[in-house]
Amino acid sequence: MHIKEICLEGFKSYATRTVVSGFDPHFNAITGLNGSGKSNILDSICFVLGITNLQQVRAANLQELVYKQGQAGITKATVSVTFDNSERNRSPLGYEEHPEITVTRQIVVGGRNKYLINGKLAQPSQVQNLFHSVQLNVNNPHFLIMQGRITKVLNMKPPEILSMLEEAAGTRMYENKKEAALKTLEKKQTKVDEINNLLDHEILPALEKLRREKAQYMQWANGNAELDRLKRFCIAFEYVQAEKIRDNAVHGVEEIKAKLTNIDEETEKAQEEIQEFEKQIKALTRAKEASMGGEVKTLSEKVDSLSQEMAREASKLNNKEDTVLGEKENADKIVHNIEELKKSVKERASAVKKSEEGAADLKRRFQELSTTLEECEKEHQGVLAGKSNGDEEKCLEDQLRDAKIAVGTAGTELKQLKTKIGHCEKELNERKSQLMSKQDEAVEVENELGSRKSDVERVKKALESIPYKEGQMEALEKDRGSELEVVQRLEDKVRGLSAQLANVQFTFRDPVRNFDRSKVKGVVAKLIKVKDRNSMTALEVTAGGKLYNVVVDSEDTGKQLLQNGALRRRVTIIPLNKIQSYVVQPRVQQATARLVGKENAELALSLVGYSEELKNAMEFVFGSTFVCKTTDAAKEVAFNRDIRTPSVTLEGDIFQPSGLLTGGSRKGGGDLLRQLHDMAEAESQLQGHQKRLADIEAQIKELQPLQKKFTDVKAQLELKTYDLSLFLKRAEQNEHHKLGEAVKKLEVELEEARSQIKEKELAYNNCVDAVSTLEKSIKDHDKNRDGRLKDLEKNIKTIKAQMQAASKDLKSHENEKEKLVMEEEAMVQEQLSLESQLASLKTQITTLTSEVDEQRAKVDALQKIHDESLAELKLIHAKMKECDTHISGFVTDQEKCLQKLTDMKLERKKLENEVVRMETDHKDCSVKVDKLVEKHTWIASEKQLFGKGGTDYDFESCDPYVAREKLEKLQSDQSSLEKRVNKKVMAMFEKAEDEYNALISKKNTIENDKSKITKVIEELDEKKKETLKVTWVKVNQDFGSIFSTLLPGTMAKLEPPEGGSFLDGLEVRVAFGKVLKQSLSELSGGQRSLLALSLILALLLFKPAPLYILDEVDAALDLSHTQNIGRMIKAHFPHSQFIVVSLKEGMFNNANVLFRTKFVDGVSTVQRTVTKQTK
């Protein structure tokens, strides 16, 4: 389907009826001056196709499409486009039988808008469906390429280029339908949510409530009948039981009184037997205790302790042996792996060496070929340029001309040099005679100069003899300044810490005259030095308030301080000569080390450093507590029967042997000792820096006289040196010195001229020889030039082929070598890692083996001690067993008698209670029987049925007590149900259940529809992906082909962004020759236009439309590229019609039909021309 004719009337600049007929089925061009109406023809086509975005046709509203907006008497715009529809296979759907299709659109000022198809009114949607079926969607036009679209394409991001590809593939229509389907899906989900909301918040709660009410109603109805039956049953049982108890009570009382008499007699006999057994047992027990004592208890505890310890140590031994075996197996595996890796490394190294040898041969071969090629090409260029060989820069004729010029130049220079030599010799003789006349003056200047130089040397030696280096004092002063800063900073730090530790500062006044202050040692906290910072919290908890105690030498000193020392606070004083210290016994310390390990529990005293004279005080403060690393160790130390010593964890938790535990948060725990430690370090550093500062001060004082002397001598040296420099300047200005310099200069110039004259003569001769040689070479070169060129071209071609093959082989060798090297390096690295692991394992195995041996010896020693103690315990047990046998016999007999006595007392009590109960029951039951008969009149009529089988009063088949419980429970339930039961619940429940079932059915239908829509979307998504991939491959191929046609020697393609797939977007990549451009900004404006046009045309070519409209796409192109576009359109789009607006002959000269527009008297006209090639 293609355009045959366009009829415009009142549309934009076409005021009168204008018929544009005779369109070529393939290639049409429209040209004309700016503003003549050529683009209005394209706008009219878009107008008929149903465009909605009026900006595409350069209008703000439909009224602007009417000629002069209806102000010139023309109030409507009509455009009719006639399409040739002779090819049925390319016809729109439903119009296959029409050979022509005429579509007309008309608008009237005021807003009326109508369409006609073949003269019949049609709806806009009908017109759009007609054009959509033949790929002419004007509102998303891939067939319409307007002026600004070219530049927009190149500025598109990867997702936007992918969108163009989707449009070309036709998947964009699927996206619209998918979006509509998703909206439908969303609506269905909303409906499901509404149903769920209705079910969850209204129907189901109401239904559940009615279901509960129905169950209550049914329970209440059934319970009433059951309640009446149970009431009669229980009353009948009460009546029968009351009569039975009343009749049996009198006989039972007399029998029980007789039993009580017999029980009293037997009780007296049993008490006598028990007293006799007690005497015999006491006698035997006293004899056993006298012989055995507490020896058994001690041995039992010892054996138990040894058994537990031996089990622990044996378990440790087994664990260590298993660990050693496991590590040895791992070591064997690693050794095996290392051997295999060594073999693999050797194989790879051999392969790498072979590859390197092959690559080296190929590199040499390639280098030789490259050098040969370069020489041949150079020689070839030289022959072409008329040179004798490729190394020459100029042709032979130019060389001959240059050689002749060189002969003339060399001759002139030679004559000039000879003249210069004569002139210099004459002037030199004159200067020498003048110099001889000034000799006496020169001798005086030399003597004076020598004297001044000797003075300078003397002062310089005096300066060097002074033991002082320049800048030494400044360096010392700089060091003094930095030390002063450090000392100041440390003093501030010490003052700050002292302020924080004011409570451990002990100040006092001398209690007596000439008091020896060394007797007062100080506060405990300041007298110790903590060995491990981690234990500070534990030590602070251990010492507690004792850290603030004051240590003195004797109680007399302490008394003097308390009475006359003017103390500012209350203190506790520790006199060294009276304090009773306590240290955990060595036996207990050893037991602790065995129990938890020496490193896990240490005596607090061992963690602090102190002076030997303070030993008693430190033992008093720290000697009775263990510091443990873990809570478990602290528990063991505190609660073990062999140790039972207070313990403190590193976190400050206290465990007392009495069972008292103290712990929890200790905010700022250990801060006191830590601050004291920091202050001690700061004071130590302060002393060091103060000493350093004093040393620097001493050095400065010592160097001050030397510095003064050095400064004075240096000033003399500078003065003498300055005088010498002034004298030298004056000496250089005298006549003798000037003449001497002039003579030296002339001699140098003369010598240079004599050496140059030899060179110039040689150069002149060489230039003459070169001229004769070049004249001969020019004659020989003209004879054999063609033959040399052919040979050189043949050699160049052969060498290039050899180089290409060598380069390919070399690249494969290098790739293989690189792969082998990487494998070798990886294996070596793995081998080193395994060897390191093996060394570590061997060390670990050695350590573990020694530990196993030590543990085994320890277990054997424990086993020996345990066996000895157990044998001793068994011997004592055997002796005790004989004595226990006699005692147990008496005890057994005594217990039997006691049990018998207890049973008889209990039996008597029961019988007494039974007598009382029976008498009461007799009285109560008589009253109860009378009341039941009076209250329930039916008893008299049904009394004969009570207790009979098969009746409602069968007490054997139905337990009366269970029936009583049921009755009570049923009465309670019925009374509560009576208040809550709904009598209309059955009808209400049936109605609610019907509503619920209807909603569930509706929800299931919607859910099925949702699943079907989702499944279809998933299937179409997969088909879209496959279609896009096929489209990408085809468009990419056409894109490269079209671009290389428009711009020979180039390549273009579409690629996904780095690290992504084609579904993430596509980027345009361009190469000139084989070099890829990093950015499209490197292209010129014309190249960018060609690139964008190529991409657009490649997209059009994938699914060709019957019609394509191009509006000045060649605006940025030169003539040659414009011609290429015309030829490319003919070559690649044989089945589509092109209507191109252009101002360049290169474009419209390729068209089959050319329309020229003119603007005459305010109205556009069109003239048709057929190009020569069509004719």
From TrEMBL:
GO terms for biological process: cell division; chromosome condensation; meiotic cell cycle; nuclear chromosome segregation; nuclear division. One of its GO terms (molecular function) is ATP binding. Residues 518-638 form the SMC hinge domain. It comes from the Eukaryota. Pfam families: SMC_hinge, SMC_N. Keywords: ATP-binding, Cell cycle, Cell division, Coiled coil, DNA condensation, Meiosis, Mitosis, Nucleotide-binding, Nucleus. Residues 253-323, 414-448, 473-507, 729-865, 894-928, 989-1026 form a coiled coil. It is found in: Nucleus. GO terms for cellular component: condensed chromosome; condensin complex; nuclear lumen. InterPro entries: P-loop_NTPase, RecF/RecN/SMC_N, SMC, Smc2_ABC, SMC_hinge, SMC_hinge_sf. Its main location: nucleus. Forms a heterodimer with SMC4. Component of the condensin complex, which contains the SMC2 and SMC4 heterodimer, and three non SMC subunits that probably regulate the complex: CAPH, CAPD2 and CAPG. Central component of the condensin complex, a complex required for conversion of interphase chromatin into mitotic-like condense chromosomes. The condensin complex probably introduces positive supercoils into relaxed DNA in the presence of type I topoisomerases and converts nicked DNA into positive knotted forms in the presence of type II topoisomerases. Also involved in chromosome segregation in meiosis. Belongs to the SMC family. SMC2 subfamily. This is Structural maintenance of chromosomes protein.
